[in-house]
């Protein structure tokens, strides 16, 4: 089959790769219905994160169970499934309290931009839909696999409460989904930090009530002014840069909560500043598996539609154009269909 391989900075190829086979009795093979490009894929694509030789890409996926190992329970061939970007057994101590992204058996999915994917610990990783969904729901269900699951985790980790004031740092795909999650979880006011008109518009569509275009100290000042000098109850950091982290810390109220779900690159925090800021922090790779059944049910019932986060749809074979479009910020998030 043909799959997506990163050879070096800017060099994405759709080329011949080995077809996956069951390797462990707990594996499944999934025929991909839809996959996409993640903001985190751009770090190695831009040469800002080293790769050791040609590297298979992709970790967001949904599709149909093609084959099942003999030890997989709870799944049937032909079922439509969504999986987290982290394989998890769903039984170990981390999984048992809802932190499947720190599973003792953890493996990060990395070959999903392909027609077929081997999923380890399939019984613990994949969540089946009650029936094969309408094709129109595929983008929304795919979003559950990572981008929405991560935005949802940000809102959960930052303890978004009904009526509370929320700041979302970042207007990329995860930031957009964090806005949607905050709205669904009942936030009263959702302030998004964004400088891009199209992204501001999308954020408003997902539920943003206010936009702050200023950055750095000016951005912090603007939000403090909007909150009578108090800061926000819940702050969702969805970028991962040093500037974004400092912005997030600067606008979280004392006793408030800050979530950080952007993969950190160059973040340096001062212990003294953290100590004096007196806030709760939770972050890390999102335990998407915890939220998957709920998120899938909301999408399947038409109660929530994350699909507008995909603003470009391409055939999987044109994956290289998908990376270029995201790298050049012509697209927020690119959906790929095999
Ligand atoms: Zn586990």
Secondary-structure element string: EEEHEEEEHEEHEHHEHEHEHEHEHEHEHE
What count of structural domains?
A: 2
CATH architecture of the largest domain: Alpha-Beta Complex
What class do helices, strands and sheet pairing give?
alpha/beta
In CATH, what is the homologous superfamily of the largest domain? Medium-chain alcohol dehydrogenases, catalytic domain
CATH class of the largest domain: Alpha Beta
- Considering DSSP H and I runs of 4 or more, what fraction of the residues is helical? 25-40%
CATH topology of the largest domain, what is it called? Quinone Oxidoreductase, Chain A, domain 1
CA-based gyration radius: 19 Å
Q: List each distinct ligand once.
A: zinc ion
The number of helical segments is 12
Q: What proportion of the residues form beta strands (DSSP E)? A: 25-35%
Q: Main sheet, how many strands, which sense, barrel?
A: 7 strands, mixed
The average pLDDT is 97
Terminal CA distance: 11 Å
Unreliable sequence segments: none
Q: How would you sum up this structure, described in words?
A:
The chain is α/β, with parallel strands linked by helices and 338 residues long. The protein folds into two domains: 196 residues, Medium-chain alcohol dehydrogenases, catalytic domain (Quinone Oxidoreductase, Chain A, domain 1); 134 residues, NAD(P)-binding Rossmann-like Domain (Rossmann fold, 3-Layer(aba) Sandwich). It is built from twelve helices and 18 strands. Helix 5 packs across helix 6, helix 6 packs parallel to helix 7 and helix 8 runs parallel beside helix 9. The chain is globular, with a radius of gyration of 19 Å. The chain starts with a strand and ends with a strand. Zinc ion (ZN) binds next to helix 2.
